Amino acid sequence: YQVPVADLALTCHSFQGYTGSAMAMGERTPLALVDAPASGRMAIAEAITNIAAARIGPIHRIKLSGNWMCACGEEGEDAALYDTVRAVGLEFCPALGVSIPVGKDSLSMRAVWEDAEGAAHKVVAPLSLVVSAFASVEDVRRHATPDLKRGGDTRLLLVDLGRRRNRLGGSCLAQVYNQIGSEAPDVDAGDVRGLYEAVQTLLDQDLVLAYHDRSDGGLFTAVAEMAFAGRCGVELEVGVLGRDPLAALFCEEVGVVIQYRADDKEAVYKVFEEQGIADLVHGVGQPVDDLHLRIRSGDDLVYDAPLLDLHAAWAELTYRMQAHRDDPDCAREEYEALADDQDPGLNFHLAHEAAPTIGGKAQPRVAILREQGINGQVEMAAAFDAAACEAVDVTMTDLLEGRVELSSFHGLAACGGFSYGDVLGAGAGWARSILFHDRLREQFAAFFERLDTFSLGVCNGCQMLSHLKELIPGAAAWPQFVRNRSEQFEARFATVEVLESCSVLLRGMEGSRLPIAVAHGEGRVQFGDERALGRAQIENQLCLRYVDNYGDPSECYPSNPNGSPAGLTAFTSADGRATIMMPHPERVFRNVQLSWRPVEWKGEEGPWLKLFQNARDFADAS
Fold it and tell me: How much is the pTM?
């Protein structure tokens, strides 16, 4: 359901293999108003519990960066900073076995001004430590996400490093009542280390279905976010956590919530026993089929609310801010979609087999074309390389100075980015550098006219090629691409349907509904006249369209991220040799690049590798 609740970022180191890096953050600034050293320890603990969702190995592999902020010179702040640095750098981190090799500081965290009447005002920020945690991972596929998994008999447990103290100082609950509190949460380094090692073992043994840390908003928010992401109800039991259900639900002590299979209970609890923290583990409920969040304390039902009502309340502030900043209709469409209790969520259909590349003849040469401001050339080259093509880095300067000629290539791929900073309109400046240069104009026209060539334009390359349509045979009906309806740069995963078209790059993919990366600010299709769309449709030049979770063509935000009519987002020439598209297939040619995928998509090859294999097949046949 693409709910933004994950606390862990993972990146691959390369386009081969699965080694990569994990990154997470932690901050507990409000606690510094109660206990400054505790806020530092809690920030580090939050970063550790967040990054623990990746399979890293021993805790010493994690490296931290500390961003310190303080209003030095204000009463008590210098001492608070000293005490916190000492507690973190000389005590807590050494006890964890984790180092902080880098960091920065901002030590003038105050604002002073006079109002219209000349009265002086001052706002002083509390001491803040924002911790970033980094680690290398051997396999980025070995991780856990917060979304609850539906189906099967599963349970939820809470590992409570607060040891049922349920302290509310500095919590969101206290802030709601305009209070600070008198006792802040704190944590023991040995407990944090034991929890980290236990989670790593659980990941090793494939015993974790879902994982989320307890921090801002407490247990209630952690479980609700897991339920939102998985779109399933929860029966929560908090009686085991203390006599005060409110404190148990909203305290922000360090902890994690884990979903596991009921049949694995013995194996799961054994792992915590081995780390000496079994007494901190409490069964707190289970997912249920109906979309409600019910909370019990012993025999008493203390809370019961529809999950979608809670999701709407959780997202309301975002919606109100978005409605002011972005197009208000787009904000409203996204917010109202949360109320659809029949929404099936992300679902895809693969009409072709995602198969490995089999090399044949000599590798066809493909020019990976870039200009100043283009940044998508590396993944484009990697995608063609995975399809057994010879990807050659070609800059516009190479062509201008005659070092490279397009006549030596079978394929041309114009990459994404921001050529000339989009100052003249997205892709327009890049195109004019060709159209207004006689030799380049002739060279590109000759390439497009050769019947043994193919062209692919993605994102900024798509916009650029659309401005070159006068040089491309059979491209007269192509549209231009203008500012997104949302008035924002859209970077997200969307679902597109592959339409039946004459594109040589999309052969055999017709009827597929596939996830794809989107990253553009000017992607809304705009035809020059009403007849152009009709001509493109008659000549089978419409290639891709955005669809919603029901598989229907969409003009609604965010399933259609730019507001293009009928969801259209890719086009081809009359003979199918030139194809342009706003989404990025080169960013999802491996399954591991997908933020979510069906469980049956287990192989290395992603659904969009077929496009690049088709390019290879066309070049071989030519």
Answer: 0.94
